[in-house]
Design a protein that fits this description.
It holds the Pfam family Caroten_synth. This is Carotenoid biosynthesis protein. This protein has 292 residues and is mainly α. The protein has eleven helices and four strands; from the N terminus they run ααααβββααβααααα. It has a two-stranded antiparallel ribbon with strand order 1-4. Strands 2-3 form a two-stranded antiparallel sheet. Strand 2 and strand 3 form a beta hairpin.
Length: 292
Protein backbone atom coordinates (compact mmCIF):
# COMPACT_ATOMS: atom_id res chain seq x y z
CA UNK A 1 0.00 0.00 0.00
CA UNK A 2 1.34 3.40 -0.96
CA UNK A 3 2.11 5.83 1.81
CA UNK A 4 -0.34 8.69 2.07
CA UNK A 5 0.91 11.93 0.59
CA UNK A 6 2.21 14.36 3.19
CA UNK A 7 -0.19 17.03 4.16
CA UNK A 8 0.59 20.40 2.58
CA UNK A 9 1.70 23.14 4.91
CA UNK A 10 -1.01 25.42 3.53
CA UNK A 11 -3.70 22.89 4.47
CA UNK A 12 -2.23 22.51 7.94
CA UNK A 13 -2.03 26.28 8.38
CA UNK A 14 -5.64 26.69 7.27
CA UNK A 15 -6.88 24.03 9.71
CA UNK A 16 -4.81 25.57 12.49
CA UNK A 17 -6.23 29.00 11.77
CA UNK A 18 -9.76 27.59 11.72
CA UNK A 19 -9.24 25.85 15.06
CA UNK A 20 -7.75 28.96 16.66
CA UNK A 21 -10.65 31.02 15.32
CA UNK A 22 -13.15 28.52 16.69
CA UNK A 23 -11.58 28.63 20.15
CA UNK A 24 -11.41 32.43 20.20
CA UNK A 25 -15.06 32.68 19.21
CA UNK A 26 -15.98 30.23 21.97
CA UNK A 27 -14.15 32.34 24.57
CA UNK A 28 -15.87 35.54 23.43
CA UNK A 29 -19.26 33.86 23.19
CA UNK A 30 -19.03 32.29 26.65
CA UNK A 31 -17.98 35.62 28.23
CA UNK A 32 -20.10 37.89 26.12
CA UNK A 33 -22.00 39.63 28.91
CA UNK A 34 -18.85 40.16 30.98
CA UNK A 35 -17.00 41.69 28.03
CA UNK A 36 -19.80 43.84 26.65
CA UNK A 37 -21.50 44.97 29.87
CA UNK A 38 -19.45 44.35 33.01
CA UNK A 39 -16.15 45.71 31.69
CA UNK A 40 -17.53 49.05 30.43
CA UNK A 41 -19.58 49.60 33.58
CA UNK A 42 -16.50 49.01 35.74
CA UNK A 43 -14.50 51.20 33.36
CA UNK A 44 -16.96 54.07 33.65
CA UNK A 45 -16.95 53.86 37.45
CA UNK A 46 -13.15 53.76 37.74
CA UNK A 47 -12.60 56.57 35.23
CA UNK A 48 -15.10 58.84 36.95
CA UNK A 49 -13.57 57.93 40.33
CA UNK A 50 -10.14 58.82 38.90
CA UNK A 51 -11.41 62.17 37.65
CA UNK A 52 -13.01 62.95 41.00
CA UNK A 53 -9.90 62.00 43.00
CA UNK A 54 -11.54 59.02 44.67
CA UNK A 55 -8.92 56.43 43.71
CA UNK A 56 -5.39 56.12 45.11
CA UNK A 57 -2.52 57.18 42.89
CA UNK A 58 -1.50 53.76 41.52
CA UNK A 59 -5.07 53.04 40.36
CA UNK A 60 -6.17 56.46 39.14
CA UNK A 61 -5.92 56.65 35.35
CA UNK A 62 -3.71 53.55 35.43
CA UNK A 63 -2.59 53.23 31.77
CA UNK A 64 -2.14 49.46 31.91
CA UNK A 65 -5.66 48.99 33.26
CA UNK A 66 -7.04 51.35 30.63
CA UNK A 67 -5.26 49.50 27.82
CA UNK A 68 -6.19 46.07 29.18
CA UNK A 69 -9.85 47.03 29.53
CA UNK A 70 -9.88 48.51 26.03
CA UNK A 71 -8.37 45.36 24.50
CA UNK A 72 -10.90 43.14 26.28
CA UNK A 73 -13.80 45.26 25.04
CA UNK A 74 -12.33 45.28 21.52
CA UNK A 75 -12.01 41.48 21.48
CA UNK A 76 -15.48 40.69 20.02
CA UNK A 77 -14.80 43.01 17.08
CA UNK A 78 -11.27 41.68 16.50
CA UNK A 79 -12.30 38.02 16.76
CA UNK A 80 -15.35 38.61 14.62
CA UNK A 81 -13.36 40.23 11.82
CA UNK A 82 -10.37 37.86 11.84
CA UNK A 83 -11.72 35.46 9.19
CA UNK A 84 -12.14 38.35 6.75
CA UNK A 85 -8.70 39.90 7.24
CA UNK A 86 -6.44 38.79 4.41
CA UNK A 87 -3.28 40.38 3.10
CA UNK A 88 -5.14 43.12 1.22
CA UNK A 89 -7.23 44.06 4.26
CA UNK A 90 -4.13 43.95 6.42
CA UNK A 91 -2.37 46.34 4.06
CA UNK A 92 -5.28 48.79 4.04
CA UNK A 93 -5.50 48.69 7.83
CA UNK A 94 -1.74 49.21 7.99
CA UNK A 95 -2.12 52.36 5.88
CA UNK A 96 -4.94 53.47 8.18
CA UNK A 97 -2.71 52.88 11.21
CA UNK A 98 0.04 55.07 9.74
CA UNK A 99 -2.53 57.73 8.85
CA UNK A 100 -3.95 57.62 12.39
CA UNK A 101 -0.55 58.40 13.90
CA UNK A 102 0.24 61.03 11.28
CA UNK A 103 -2.92 63.10 11.56
CA UNK A 104 -2.85 62.96 15.37
CA UNK A 105 0.75 64.17 15.50
CA UNK A 106 -0.10 66.95 13.04
CA UNK A 107 -3.09 67.84 15.20
CA UNK A 108 -1.06 68.04 18.40
CA UNK A 109 1.73 70.07 16.78
CA UNK A 110 -0.28 72.45 14.57
CA UNK A 111 -3.78 72.52 16.11
CA UNK A 112 -5.12 71.39 12.70
CA UNK A 113 -7.58 69.88 11.86
CA UNK A 114 -9.19 69.37 15.28
CA UNK A 115 -8.35 72.62 17.04
CA UNK A 116 -5.88 73.23 19.86
CA UNK A 117 -5.85 70.27 22.23
CA UNK A 118 -3.46 68.32 24.41
CA UNK A 119 -3.45 65.05 26.29
CA UNK A 120 -3.69 65.74 30.00
CA UNK A 121 -2.88 62.18 31.09
CA UNK A 122 -0.70 59.50 29.54
CA UNK A 123 -2.75 56.74 27.94
CA UNK A 124 0.16 54.34 28.05
CA UNK A 125 3.51 54.88 26.29
CA UNK A 126 3.54 58.05 24.17
CA UNK A 127 4.94 58.13 20.64
CA UNK A 128 7.48 60.98 20.43
CA UNK A 129 6.11 61.99 23.80
CA UNK A 130 3.04 63.41 22.03
CA UNK A 131 0.40 60.81 21.15
CA UNK A 132 -0.46 57.41 22.67
CA UNK A 133 1.35 54.48 21.11
CA UNK A 134 -1.92 52.54 21.38
CA UNK A 135 -3.80 55.21 19.42
CA UNK A 136 -4.85 52.82 16.59
CA UNK A 137 -6.39 50.51 19.19
CA UNK A 138 -8.48 53.43 20.41
CA UNK A 139 -9.41 54.91 17.02
CA UNK A 140 -9.63 52.27 14.28
CA UNK A 141 -12.23 50.07 16.03
CA UNK A 142 -14.49 53.13 16.31
CA UNK A 143 -14.41 53.45 12.53
CA UNK A 144 -14.97 49.72 12.04
CA UNK A 145 -17.92 49.74 14.45
CA UNK A 146 -19.49 52.70 12.64
CA UNK A 147 -18.97 51.06 9.25
CA UNK A 148 -20.33 47.65 10.28
CA UNK A 149 -23.41 49.11 11.95
CA UNK A 150 -24.01 51.26 8.87
CA UNK A 151 -23.97 48.43 6.34
CA UNK A 152 -26.13 46.29 8.62
CA UNK A 153 -28.78 48.94 9.25
CA UNK A 154 -28.86 50.33 5.69
CA UNK A 155 -29.55 46.90 4.19
CA UNK A 156 -30.06 47.30 0.41
CA UNK A 157 -29.23 51.02 0.61
CA UNK A 158 -25.66 49.98 1.41
CA UNK A 159 -25.28 48.87 -2.22
CA UNK A 160 -24.85 52.54 -3.15
CA UNK A 161 -21.25 53.59 -2.58
CA UNK A 162 -22.18 57.23 -1.95
CA UNK A 163 -24.93 56.38 0.53
CA UNK A 164 -22.76 53.80 2.30
CA UNK A 165 -19.72 56.03 2.66
CA UNK A 166 -21.64 59.16 3.64
CA UNK A 167 -23.70 57.30 6.24
CA UNK A 168 -20.58 55.66 7.71
CA UNK A 169 -18.78 59.03 7.92
CA UNK A 170 -21.78 60.52 9.73
CA UNK A 171 -21.72 57.55 12.12
CA UNK A 172 -17.99 58.07 12.81
CA UNK A 173 -18.53 61.75 13.61
CA UNK A 174 -21.52 60.82 15.79
CA UNK A 175 -19.30 58.40 17.71
CA UNK A 176 -16.93 61.26 18.47
CA UNK A 177 -19.90 63.40 19.52
CA UNK A 178 -20.26 60.83 22.31
CA UNK A 179 -16.56 60.25 22.99
CA UNK A 180 -15.01 63.70 23.17
CA UNK A 181 -17.37 65.35 25.70
CA UNK A 182 -16.97 62.38 28.04
CA UNK A 183 -13.19 62.26 27.57
CA UNK A 184 -12.93 65.98 28.33
CA UNK A 185 -15.15 65.56 31.40
CA UNK A 186 -12.89 62.89 32.92
CA UNK A 187 -9.67 64.68 31.96
CA UNK A 188 -8.27 62.51 29.16
CA UNK A 189 -7.56 65.61 27.07
CA UNK A 190 -8.62 69.22 26.86
CA UNK A 191 -9.17 71.85 24.20
CA UNK A 192 -7.70 75.34 24.56
CA UNK A 193 -9.84 77.37 24.58
CA UNK A 194 -12.78 75.13 25.48
CA UNK A 195 -15.49 74.89 22.86
CA UNK A 196 -19.27 75.29 23.13
CA UNK A 197 -20.10 71.58 22.97
CA UNK A 198 -19.26 70.46 26.52
CA UNK A 199 -15.78 71.94 26.17
CA UNK A 200 -15.26 70.66 22.61
CA UNK A 201 -14.87 73.19 19.75
CA UNK A 202 -16.82 72.74 16.53
CA UNK A 203 -13.50 72.65 14.65
CA UNK A 204 -12.92 69.24 16.23
CA UNK A 205 -15.85 67.82 14.29
CA UNK A 206 -14.70 69.36 11.04
CA UNK A 207 -11.43 67.55 11.72
CA UNK A 208 -13.30 64.31 12.33
CA UNK A 209 -15.09 64.71 8.99
CA UNK A 210 -11.65 64.81 7.35
CA UNK A 211 -10.08 61.97 9.31
CA UNK A 212 -13.30 59.96 9.27
CA UNK A 213 -13.62 60.24 5.50
CA UNK A 214 -10.11 58.88 4.91
CA UNK A 215 -10.63 56.13 7.48
CA UNK A 216 -14.01 55.02 6.11
CA UNK A 217 -12.72 54.93 2.52
CA UNK A 218 -9.78 52.76 3.60
CA UNK A 219 -12.07 50.40 5.51
CA UNK A 220 -14.41 50.20 2.53
CA UNK A 221 -11.46 49.31 0.29
CA UNK A 222 -10.10 46.77 2.77
CA UNK A 223 -12.96 44.27 2.69
CA UNK A 224 -15.17 42.48 0.21
CA UNK A 225 -18.46 44.05 1.26
CA UNK A 226 -20.70 41.08 0.49
CA UNK A 227 -18.48 38.69 2.43
CA UNK A 228 -18.17 41.20 5.27
CA UNK A 229 -21.94 41.73 5.41
CA UNK A 230 -22.49 37.98 5.58
CA UNK A 231 -20.03 37.76 8.46
CA UNK A 232 -21.70 40.66 10.31
CA UNK A 233 -25.12 39.05 9.86
CA UNK A 234 -24.02 35.66 11.15
CA UNK A 235 -21.59 36.63 13.95
CA UNK A 236 -23.87 37.65 16.79
CA UNK A 237 -21.17 39.30 18.91
CA UNK A 238 -19.23 41.31 16.31
CA UNK A 239 -20.87 44.60 17.36
CA UNK A 240 -20.50 44.02 21.10
CA UNK A 241 -17.59 46.48 21.14
CA UNK A 242 -20.08 49.16 20.14
CA UNK A 243 -22.31 48.08 23.04
CA UNK A 244 -19.31 48.57 25.34
CA UNK A 245 -18.65 51.99 23.83
CA UNK A 246 -22.23 53.15 24.40
CA UNK A 247 -22.28 51.92 27.99
CA UNK A 248 -18.86 53.34 28.88
CA UNK A 249 -18.91 56.75 27.23
CA UNK A 250 -22.68 57.22 27.19
CA UNK A 251 -22.73 56.43 30.91
CA UNK A 252 -19.99 58.97 31.65
CA UNK A 253 -21.91 61.61 29.68
CA UNK A 254 -25.03 60.88 31.74
CA UNK A 255 -23.07 61.18 35.00
CA UNK A 256 -21.70 64.59 33.95
CA UNK A 257 -24.98 65.85 32.53
CA UNK A 258 -23.82 65.95 28.90
CA UNK A 259 -27.33 65.27 27.71
CA UNK A 260 -26.90 65.85 23.98
CA UNK A 261 -23.94 63.47 23.91
CA UNK A 262 -25.97 60.97 25.94
CA UNK A 263 -28.83 61.29 23.46
CA UNK A 264 -26.45 60.51 20.57
CA UNK A 265 -25.35 57.42 22.50
CA UNK A 266 -29.02 56.55 22.79
CA UNK A 267 -29.35 56.80 19.01
CA UNK A 268 -26.63 54.16 18.70
CA UNK A 269 -28.66 51.99 21.08
CA UNK A 270 -31.57 52.25 18.64
CA UNK A 271 -29.26 51.30 15.77
CA UNK A 272 -28.01 48.28 17.70
CA UNK A 273 -31.58 47.29 18.57
CA UNK A 274 -32.40 47.52 14.87
CA UNK A 275 -29.96 44.67 14.22
CA UNK A 276 -32.20 42.34 16.22
CA UNK A 277 -29.42 40.76 18.28
CA UNK A 278 -29.68 42.66 21.58
CA UNK A 279 -32.70 41.69 23.62
CA UNK A 280 -33.59 40.88 27.21
CA UNK A 281 -31.93 37.48 26.97
CA UNK A 282 -28.60 39.18 26.27
CA UNK A 283 -29.08 41.62 29.15
CA UNK A 284 -30.06 38.89 31.62
CA UNK A 285 -27.59 36.18 30.76
CA UNK A 286 -25.20 37.28 28.04
CA UNK A 287 -26.21 34.24 26.00
CA UNK A 288 -26.01 34.59 22.21
CA UNK A 289 -29.16 35.91 20.63
CA UNK A 290 -30.34 35.25 17.14
CA UNK A 291 -29.37 37.79 14.50
CA UNK A 292 -31.56 38.74 11.60
Amino acid sequence: MADPEPESSSGFDERTRTEVQRRLEAVVRENRFTIAVVFPVIGAVTLVASAEGLLPGPLAYNPLLILFGTLVMRSPLIVGLLPKIGWWALGCLGVLTAYTYAIEIVGVRTDWPYGAFEYTIQLGPMLFGEVPLALPVFFIPLVLNAYLLTILVLEEWADSTIVRLCAAIVAVVAIDAVLDPAAVAIGFWEFVPPGPYYGVPLSNYLGWVISGTVAVVLVDLAFDREALLERVQTCEFILDDLVSFVLLWGGINVLYGNWIAAAVAGAFCLGLARTGRYDLAFVRTGLPTTGR
